[in-house]
Amino acid sequence: MDNQTQVWISEVLGWAEHFYIGNGYPHVDYKRMFILEHKQHNAQVVNSDVVFTAEEEAELQHLWSLSRQAWGKASDLHGMAILPDKLWTSDVNSPSPNLSAFTITGNYLVLSEACGEILQQFNLGNSQLVKLQIYNMGTLEPDDKRFFYFFDLAEWRHYVLPEKSASCRSSGYERNGYQRHVYRPWKGDLVLSKEAPYCDLDIWHDPMLMRSVFLSKRLYQALNDAGMSQDWHLTPCVID
User: Fold this and answer.
1) Would you give the distance in Å from CA 226 to the centre of its chain?
2) Cβ atoms 151, 203 nearer than 8 A
3) Which residues pair with 174 in a beta bridge?
4) The organism sits in which domain of life (predicted)?
């Protein structure tokens, strides 16, 4: 087997098409939070006659606090505390039916129904898929009949060899006990240790490489066979 095609790195979290869509959690009144956020913004406009009261400010702060409770370790790609049960948007733009993967506000990853069903067939470990719809803030109804999958990536594995990878540049700081690096594919190959092809998972994050997502060969092949790989912005890795 060609060692350059056993594991793939995805830049989906950096280069996927992005939409202004927010997470809705079962314990948060997202509609109310949206209204208060816009009222707060309008009240700050020069010469505005909109009044944002202290009570409304306190209510908004409380709703933000409830939302933060749900985030868990999502910023580190290590799992959310509470998963969303719906998505909300006020944007006229919506994901194309042909789009298999895209990001939303907060840099969360959302998949088409077909793509999510493919991932369900693979070993995700503690990462989770949640089937949901996108709701319109104006009508409080789904934008259309389509379903999507919210993907909460929660698994870490460490195989990146930055000292051998021309594509890795040190960020100069450490997080969660790992020296963080930035991926620059135009600089050269990304080299992984020989254990990478034998990973017990089909998709994972390496904490040494910011916003990284890695796919096994068989998951890559399934996405490619379904005509979805282009939305994942994939590059083959080199195994050392």
Assistant:
1) 21
2) no
3) 179
4) Bacteria
Q: Are 214 and 190 in contact (CB under 8 A)?
A: no
Tokens representing 128? 């989770």
Record the tokens describing residue 210, joined without a space: 């910011």
For 50-107, how does the pLDDT look when each residue is reduced to its tens digit (9 = 90+)?
999 999 999 999 999 999 999 999 999 999 999 999 999 988 789 999 999 999 999 9
In the chain, where the domains are located: 7-14+156-239
Residues in the chain: 240
Indicate the range of 118-122, 185-189, 211-215 predicted with least confidence: 185-189
Under DSSP, is residue 26 helix (H, G, I), strand (E, B) or coil?
Answer: coil
Give residue 211's pLDDT band: very low, low, confident or very high (50, 70, 90): very high
Note the pTM of the prediction, 2 decimals: 0.91
Tell me the helices (H) and strands (E) count for the chain, helix number first.
Answer: 5, 16
Q: How confident is the model at residue 3 (pLDDT cuts 50, 70, 90)?
A: very low
Helix (H) or strand (E) holding 42: helix 30-43
Place of tokens 């009570």: 55
The three-class DSSP label of residue 240 is coil
